[in-house]
Design goal:
heterodimer; A: mainly alpha; 79% helix; B: 312 residues; mainly alpha; 16 helices
Chain lengths: 282, 312
Amino acid sequence: MAQGAFSRPHSVLPGFNLALGYTLFYLGLIVLIPLSAAFIKTFSLTWESFWVTVSAPRVVASYWLTFRTSLLAAAINAVFGLLTAWVLVRYKFPGKRFIDALVDLPFALPTAVAGIALTAVYATNGWLGKPLDEMGIKVAFTPLGILVALTFIGLPFVVRTVQPVLEDLEEELEEAAKSLGASNWQTFSRVIFPTVRPAVITGFTLAFARALGEYGSVIFIAGNMPMVSEITPLIIITKLEQYDYSGATAVAVVMLVASFLLLLAINTLQWWARRRRNEEAV
Amino acid sequence: MAAVFPPTPMPTAPLQRPAARRPIRWAPIVLTGIALAYLALFLFVPLAAVFFEAFKKGAGFYWDAIREPDAWSAIQLTLITSAIAVPLNLVFGVAAAWAIAKFDFRGKSFLITLIDLPFSVSPVISGLIYVLIFGLQGWVGPWLSEHDIKIIFAVPGIVLATIFITFPFVARELIPLMQAQGREEEEAAAILGASGWQTLWYVTLPNVKWGLLYGVILCNARAMGEFGAVSVVSGHIRGETNTLPLHVEILYNEYAFAAAFACASLLAFLALITLAIKSIVEAGPPSPPTPLPKSGEGGVLLHKAFGLARNN
């Protein structure tokens, strides 16, 4: 790509310096300088005290809990999100437009509201919690409750990444596969799924990244027992409330590095998907 | 069966197909059922629960819970916060989209990644970083306390954390839209002698007004509903630094469930209005919408995932 060689700072249009200057100024002021504060604060710790803080058993238990519930929630959303996208694109049923619009609810509903609503529904006296409790399944105030909250907040990602790809998918391809004798399952696994796979993976990764940092919807339903149902963002809050700013920052830096690596993975993934598509187009 | 219908001079094979297929068309019903059950378990039932719990003790109790002074001051603070954060991020979004969509320069995709950063930072950390700068032990904390300026555990900190959290929304909506629209119209305006501001005001903004509106309402919904980041910097002083989501938490922790859900229902109502506007914007603006770059293209996937794009 000879993009650099063709770059034209001298366009007919005015305002480049002002617009880019203001963008960089505001970005630096609001995002970059404050974020760098977290890293600079960590340097005030010795390596030993940093390591002792971020590898304390209670903190490690919270990483593992946050990681596995986020991963599982993203996996649930990948499977059912793909299915929901398929149903919304291909089938007609009453109230479809309304339901399609409501899929975005987790983006619009404040996390604290989601948290208390899910707790009310899944507590042992709640609408869904009561029958589940009678079956011997406790949801609220257990790690399972965290899974429910993280599934809620990650729900729209896979649906919304897969939906446009399915809309573009030509039905002729499926008909061709079927007319050549493919079963429904073969048509799905050989024709449909390969096309939507990059979108599913992107949606999965986004849902996973969102779940890792989630706080508001989880703390109400989690029960927040140390070693059992205490997520990493709550560890940061607890340390802050004890005025242990360096401890909170150390744990925050571990989380930041993890989410930056994920962001990098998302961008690489999309770059890879774009390249693959371009190769196919050629 | 087929014999009942009189003259159908078709060969038997095509006739058999629908007859044979009809009994096994269970797949749509089963799949739709599973999808609806999944959405019900995680979306519809909790949403209904908010309004049910809010009105459990009757409409009178509901109104009292909302008009109570602490709740009212929380509503006011929430409105003030978003009234500051949303316009600032709107101006930023337009500037960033103008620079990125209308000009070529090195490091453009890196800049877009940086703009997305706040999406990948935990809300708790978004609050923490401002405490590290403005808090008593922070970089400028001692200077601020000498001059009697309060930022953390006060309204400015809440506004700052909210700006950080909602930072990418408008920019994220406008950049792909303005990139898809190209530069020809602006270049024509410039050649015809329009100034930069005139071009922006009369050419660019009318073209992107629906995307802009959508970015703004989404930014606003998030600004009014932010919990984690605001919780870290607020200090939870009742009647002073409590936003509506924080007030919901306090009531809930005091076991005032009906009052907590009454305040929560206001926020849920705001969310529903946001979704309704989104739905209207998507359904069809009066002017034909400009097509987005082909769906599936890099940024658009991410973009769609945040619910920021239209479905056409």
